[in-house]
């Protein structure tokens, strides 16, 4: 029996299928070559951890320009974040509290497509989520960091105690 | 007719001549004769020093030659570009944390995370890069 096609935006649908979202959207061809060329130029000069930090700073600036708004619970944060991602066609996220941290999964991020899932490119989304949680009063000693993804299509971040 | 009358007057009583003299210009007498090759040459101000232009690598077309020559400034050295980027490669100073209303689920969650006994996440944006 064929499965139902994904909804147009994926936002608000009950199922969570990152691969379908990813494959249906990808990255705009208009920016693909430019982003890859710029990434190559930066990567030729800077080591990975400095690139990641640079991307995180860009991410925090993005968060400033796209404030998350008022949220009092994690599901509200997820919904507010998805509204922003939906508006700019940047995929979808899911947040869930686990033992000792909050797992943030992000599907169909164009940057993951453009940069083929390079490690340092995750710095951008880490910076965005970190900036949003700072806006929401995240306590000192907590931060958002990228973690190893289970699949290249699905980026993984953890909110927890900073080392 | 007016020119003849004007030329008949001595230069020292001419208003224009007096104006030239007051300005310290050498044209006080020369302006009487309007022949182009006898007009005093105005000194051009020296332009400020500019970066050495780099000749275009491509041979100019006929149309391009007809236009004014375009000088391409030398590209900025890579080292100075990296020097500009350098401040962006380090972690920014911590910002003042926004206050969160106490007693909300989010505030409680932050408290739980801070007190958690689990392994802390790396401070940098890429945990896995440092843990390899």
Summary of the model, kept short:
Chain A is an alpha+beta fold.
Features of the shown structure:
heterodimer; A: 163 residues; 4-stranded antiparallel β-sheet; 6 helices; globular; B: 132 residues; mainly alpha; rod-shaped
Pairing-aware structural class of the strands and helices of chain B? Answer: mainly alpha
Gap from first CA to last CA of chain A: 49 Å
What proportion of the residues of chain A is helical, as a percent range?
A: 40-55%
CATH architecture designation of chain A: 2-Layer Sandwich
Oligomer status: heterodimer
Strand order, main sheet of chain A: write it out: 1-2-4-3
Question: Describe the biggest sheet of chain B?
Answer: none
Radius of gyration of chain B: 38 Å
**End-to-end distance of chain B, in Å?**
99 Å
Poorly predicted runs of chain A: 1-13
Describe the overall structure.
The complex is a heterodimer of chains A (163) and B (132). Chain A is globular. Chain A has helices spanning 18-25, 29-45, 48-65, 74-87, 110-114, 122-135, and strands at residues 92-98, 101-107, 142-151, 154-161. By secondary structure, chain A is of the alpha+beta class. Chain A starts with 17 loop residues before the first helix and ends with a strand. With 132 residues, chain B is mainly alpha-helical. Chain B has a domain at 2-38. Chain B is rod-shaped, with a radius of gyration of 38 Å. In chain B, 8% of the residues are buried. The model of chain B is unreliable at 1-6 and 53-60 (pLDDT under 50). Chains A and B meet through helix 3, helix 4, helix 6, strand 3 and strand 4 of A and helix 5, helix 6 and helix 7 of B.
Secondary-structure map:
The complex is a heterodimer of chains A (163) and B (132).
Chain A: H1 18-25, H2 29-45, H3 48-65, H4 74-87, E1 92-98, E2 101-107, H5 110-114, H6 122-135, E3 142-151, E4 154-161
Antiparallel strand pairs in A: 1-2, 2-4, 3-4
Helix pairs in contact in A: 3-6
Chain B: H1 2-8, H2 15-23, H3 27-30, H4 62-66, H5 78-85, H6 105-115, H7 127-131
